[in-house]
């Protein structure tokens, strides 16, 4: 007798069919589970717009979550109704989304970036320089594969960035020697893994079925591999994944504290600084848009507002008294 699969297992199955990332899977399943428990374990098929809005209101009023968090919860619930329950009631597309506040990004000066470089531990020097020097997002950096680095063209290909788009960014010449050294170490680790019966790496979009031996080739290995071999939560296979992003986040935060930078400094701050400093150097907004991988130039335009803040190019009336 076959047992009926649990609802959350159906959610996971649909997410994997759509090739969503493991992080999206964890987030969506988490929100759907909270939604069900909030309504005393009622089945989602029995609920609708009213129950959804009650849950979202609870998040905003009682939990005081950010608008981005509330919208992520909404996205999870809409996915559940559209993709899992195959329901398209009129109210699905008319649920009010939380308005995201317009914030100017935190940007470091070039002096502050240099100070951060000097204080970051040696084991994270290359990573932080690539974040700033290429304008990479944190997960784009840790997910870099060996084959994505092109020393001949001084380029890095960012695969499946935000919006599942590929793009090419510059490879700063000052990082080439350190990056070559890193790849030598990555090759050494990979060879050891192969000799121990491991050496497989996760391949996206079921490429391991299309190219059965690709997952053990050096080209597909992560540039910055994890220190440990772990069990893949989806396949159950033991693999060496990429380095954990939280280690780099902590290193950057601690370095900022040590050099007395009194700003909220995160890996994304370096991406903001990359874009702003390019604007300061006279590069056009469309070029910067392409390097950042923004869908709309309006997103990139926020950095022009950063330059206007603090009186860039504007003389205060105080100076004319």
From TrEMBL:
Gene3D superfamilies: 1.10.150.130, Intergrase catalytic core (1.10.443.10). Keywords: Cytoplasm, DNA integration, DNA recombination, DNA-binding. One of its GO terms (cellular component) is cytoplasm. It is found in: Cytoplasm. InterPro entries: CB, DNA_brk_join_enz, Integrase-like_cat_sf, Integrase_catalytic, Integrase_integron-type, Integrase_recombinase_N, Integrase_SAM-like_N, Tyrosine_recombinase_XerCD. It comes from the Bacteria. CDD domains: INT_IntI_C. Residues 103-316 form the Tyr recombinase domain. PROSITE patterns: CB (PS51900), TYR_RECOMBINASE (PS51898). Coiled coil: none annotated. The keyword Cytoplasm applies. One of its GO terms (molecular function) is DNA binding. One of its GO terms (biological process) is DNA recombination. Residues 1-85 form the Core-binding (CB) domain. Site-specific tyrosine recombinase, which acts by catalyzing the cutting and rejoining of the recombining DNA molecules. The XerC-XerD complex is essential to convert dimers of the bacterial chromosome into monomers to permit their segregation at cell division. It also contributes to the segregational stability of plasmids. Forms a cyclic heterotetrameric complex composed of two molecules of XerC and two molecules of XerD. Belongs to the 'phage' integrase family. This is Tyrosine recombinase XerD.
